[in-house]
Amino acid sequence: MNLSFWESESFLTYDVVIIGAGITGLSSAISLLEKEPNLHVLILEKSIFPSGASTKNAGFACFGSLTELLEDQENMGIEESLNLVQMRWEGLQKLRSRFTDIELGFQQFGGYELLRESEVHFLDKMDALNKQLAPIFNTSVFLNATNKIDSFGFQKSSFSGMIFNPLEGQIDTGKTLSALWKRANLLGAKILTGTKAKSIKGNEITVENGSQNVVFSAKKIAVCTNAFTKELFPELQLVPGRGQVLITQPIPNLKFQGTFHMEAGYYYFRNVGNRVLLGGGRNLDMLGEETTEQGINKRIEKHLIHILKTELLPITSFEIDQQWSGIMAFGEVKKPILEWVSPHTFVAVRLGGMGMALGSLLGERVSTEILSS
To answer: b/e string for 78-93 if b means 16 or more Cβ within 10 A?
Structure first.
């Protein structure tokens, strides 16, 4: 009997099927095949290329600003928040161990956090937090850099303090995804795009294929779809969070380089060459941004441009070149969900806006869980 390509048992049956071709999904495939090269691994991606946060983030290689980490300690406790910092740091080191800085477009200019007058008191907590972080980094992570504010050309009246983190870097998201995709392919993973997983039942995944459905089977399934996971498992405790990002046209003689955080990480900006990339503002409309729909929130867009005009580039003319949004996933706490939801299916989701930092480590955890099961 002649079977169509889609009906071929060899095409439909795998050792492991990974749903989601973002950083976590690709890293999971790489870790699995590094350990077990003979595994038959399939990655399913619903879009032509990953369309969540992996390809649409701001390119920060970070693990949390000072005020963000202090806020996490209040919400999660000191031990849990420090464990999360360590996971982010280990994830970044795992990513950089796999690829060269050129492949990743990685640059380490350091990171800064700008403090408003009402936040200057956080400088008094810097030394204590550095001591808590010392077992992870073996160096002082946060340094007082208030004396450098003027040299960056920011509006003097807007900021009363600044913190410097020499360990933070920036990364080219497109180059990073391309490097991960290429490595997964070289190791033998099959990647199918335009294949949206509709449901998982037992060891079978039903995907859309035009007007008909196709069923893949696997010994084990890994779900790495982050904010879109509720479409498969509505009971999981996570909510989507859309992040707005814009980037300017090139600005001659741009005065700053590095990554910058404001207001506990709700706003963030960095140089991209001599352009300025600015994102955030989700806190202006938290409920409205709990969506998996791509798009621009006009209220947030207007506020981001206002920040550029009045605070970051107060005496510099600029034009907006591009705008986009990326969909993240959050929960009551920032800790990722890493658990078996059935005997066949493991989920690695809810990255809390830190997918670039966490993805490679979560991929390693996925591989360990699947191979040990």
So the answer is: eeebbebbbbbbbbbe
Q: Is the pLDDT of residue 6 over 70?
A: no
Residue 134: pLDDT over 60? yes
The strand ranges marked E within the chain are: 13-19, 41-45, 60-61, 111-115, 143-144, 161-165, 169-170, 190-193, 197-201, 204-209, 212-223, 239-248, 259-262, 267-272, 275-280, 320-330, 337-340, 345-349
- CA dist 59 → 11, 142, 166, 168, 278 (Å): 36, 20, 17, 11, 11
Q: What is the mean pLDDT of residues 197-207?
A: 96
Exposed/middle/buried for residue 195 (C-beta within 10 Å: 0-12, 13-18, 19+): buried
| Claim: this prediction has a pTM higher than 0.70 | yes
pLDDT for 46 beyond 80: yes
Confidence (pLDDT) at 55: 67
The SS3 call for residue 359 is helix
